[in-house]
Structures are given as C-alpha cells and as structure tokens.
C-alpha cells in the first residue's frame, strides 16, 4: 500500500475513532500500531549527571554551590551553521532569525552566564558573515526588552 494512503488511513483512524471514556485504562498492543511507526526501534535513555552538569532538551542544568543554573546546551558536533548573510533571502528574514536565536539562547541561559553565551553567538554569526555592528545592535535591542 502507498505510504501516503497508509498515513491517511491511520490519520482518519485517529481523528474519527470513538474516544475511550475518561479514566478508562487503555493498554495498546503491538498489533494496534501501524508498522511504519517502528515501535521496536524506540529506545528510552537516561542522562546521567557528569561534572555537576546534566543536559536536558536544549538546556544544560548546572549544579553550583547548592544552586541550579541553566544554560543553552550544544552538542560537541554542533557546527554553528545558520542562514548565511550572503544567501539570497530577504535581509529582514536574516535579521529576524538572528534575533530569534539571541532571544532563544538568552531565555535558556541564566543572566550570570549571558556574556559567555553572547560571545559564542557572536562567533557563530561572524562565521556566517553577519557584520559585528549588526550583531551588537541586535544583542543590545534584545537585552533591553
């Protein structure tokens, strides 16, 4: 069967099947899942704290003197590739992406770690040909909000 048709049939099954009443135990069996979901290949893992650090989703939780701090987590393999300033996209789109990245990283980072994070962001933007004055102007604009 065509994958699109299979997905459409599964979507119709989810959207239009009668819902079980609230608080009723639902225990799905392996046979009730479609084959394309590959339930057998899903693995549950657990992160373990190393050097008083624990990565969780896009953040890293740091235990320091009995207090918890948070900062943005990047894998070691992170290449820092974002939309290049030389690409053929609208300039406002590029600035919007830059501001979104700055806002996102500052929200996931405690205030005392902002300078370190902004230095990393500045290097990422410079590597993608964003002018330093544009970077600093947008950092100031985001921080003043």
TrEMBL record:
Record protein name field: Helix-turn-helix domain-containing protein
Source taxon at top rank: Eukaryota
Higher taxonomy: Eukaryota, Metazoa, Spiralia, Lophotrochozoa, Platyhelminthes
Any single Pfam family the record assigns to this protein: HTH_animal
Organism: Protopolystoma xenopodis
Boundaries of every Helix-turn-helix domain copy: 81-140
């Amino acid at each position: 069967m065509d994958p699109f048709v299979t997905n459409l049939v599964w979507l119709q099954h989810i959207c239009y099947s009668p819902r079980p009443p609230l608080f009723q135990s639902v225990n799905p069996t392996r046979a009730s899942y479609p084959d394309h979901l590959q339930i057998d290949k899903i693995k549950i893992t657990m992160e373990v704290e190393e050097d008083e650090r624990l990565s969780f989703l896009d953040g890293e939780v740091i235990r320091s003197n009995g207090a918890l701090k948070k900062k943005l987590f990047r894998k070691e393999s992170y290449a820092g590739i974002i939309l290049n300033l030389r690409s053929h996209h609208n300039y406002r789109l590029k600035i919007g992406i830059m501001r979104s990245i700055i806002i996102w990283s500052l929200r996931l980072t405690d205030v005392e770690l902002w300078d370190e994070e902004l230095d990393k962001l500045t290097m990422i933007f410079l590597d993608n040909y964003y002018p330093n004055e544009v970077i600093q102007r947008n950092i100031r604009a985001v921080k003043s909000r």
